[in-house]
Amino acid sequence: MTKLETMLRGSLWAASLEPDAFDVVLRHAFERWVPAGGYAVRRGEPADCWIGVIEGLVKMSVSQPDGRVSSFTGVTRGGWAGEGSLLKPGAWRYDGVAVRDTHLACVPRHAFEHLVDTSLGFNRFLLSHLNARLSLFVGLVEYDRLLGPDARVARCLASLFDPDLYPHAGQTVQLSQEEIGLLSAVSRQRTNQALHALERAGLLRVAFGSVTVLDLPGLRCYSGELESSPRR
Questions:
Q1: Residue 228, CA distances (Å) to 39, 201, 231 in order
Q2: How many domains are there within the chain?
Q3: Residue 216 is part of which domain span?
Q4: Could you give the count of Cα atoms lying within 13 Å of 172 in the half-sphere of its Cβ?
Q5: Number of CB atoms found within 10 A of residue 193's CB
Q6: C-alpha neighbours within 13 Å on the C-beta side of residue 52
Q7: Average pLDDT value for residue range 132-140
């Protein structure tokens, strides 16, 4: 079985499909490889496929005219993105940039629309998926406007462990401090300080190139006011 088929069959939505419907996806899906810094999707270009991350990391963001970049979220291994844009005709309204070399699964628009038109189970999945995405964005607006750098990093990391969006996340995510900083819109140096503060609070464990979450509920509600002593 190819990595593409393994990704498709292992996705949460695949379990909702009848065999004939899944076969439509399997026949038309294709792979893309995007180098670090390349575009998985690009603002203004036609939204022509639903994308899933087989391996790698994609940062969803919007660039402002003055050069500032507003990051929404990162899509890690096993995650899917772009369904909102495919539910209506038009172009991508944001950029999806590969933070590292990334291997994508792509379901063309016509195959995606076939599932929406014919599969009740797939539509139920989409409702749950979009609700999870909406909850994530509401949280992002909160921490972007109200919280400091430590809490921004905490909430950003917590968002990557949402089981409805990233069912294969486990407890450890392979991210460098630079990548975490890019996703949370915090400088690399400040990200390092935030990670150590969160580690002292007993919420996570930092290793070279990875972060292991020890207390996901704690990360989700972290406001920067926790005691600095480790938890017992």
A1: 40, 6, 9
A2: 2
A3: 147-221
A4: 9
A5: 14
A6: 28
A7: 74
Residues 94 and 188 in one domain: no
Q: From residue 81, give the alpha-carbon distance in Å to each of 57, 145, 163, 179.
A: 12, 24, 14, 19
pLDDT tens-digit map of 168-200: 767 888 888 888 888 887 888 899 999 999 999
C-alpha–C-alpha distance, residues 106 and 152, integer Å: 31
Within the chain, residue ranges assigned H as helices are 3-10, 19-28, 83-86, 109-118, 120-146, 149-159, 177-184, 188-200, 216-221
Q: Is residue 51 part of a domain?
A: yes
- pLDDT per position as a tens digit, 137-159: 766 666 555 568 888 888 888 88
Position 87: which residue type?
Answer: L
CB-based contacts of 221: which residues, under 8 Å, 6+ apart?
A: none
Q: For the chain, what's the residue count?
A: 232
Identify the domain boundary among 121, 136, 168.
121
Tokens of 17: 């499909």
pLDDT band (50, 70, 90) for residue 67: low
Phi, psi of 163 (to 5 degrees): -65, -25
Query: Do 129 and 141 contact (CB within 8 A), yes or no?
Result: no
pTM attached to this predicted model: 0.80
Instruction: Give Cα 85 distance to the centre of its chain.
Output: 15
CA distance 164 to 134: 12
Same domain, 113 and 173: no
CA–CA gap between residue 183 and residue 151 (Å, rounded): 13
Are 184 and 153 in contact by the 8 Å Cβ rule? The answer is yes
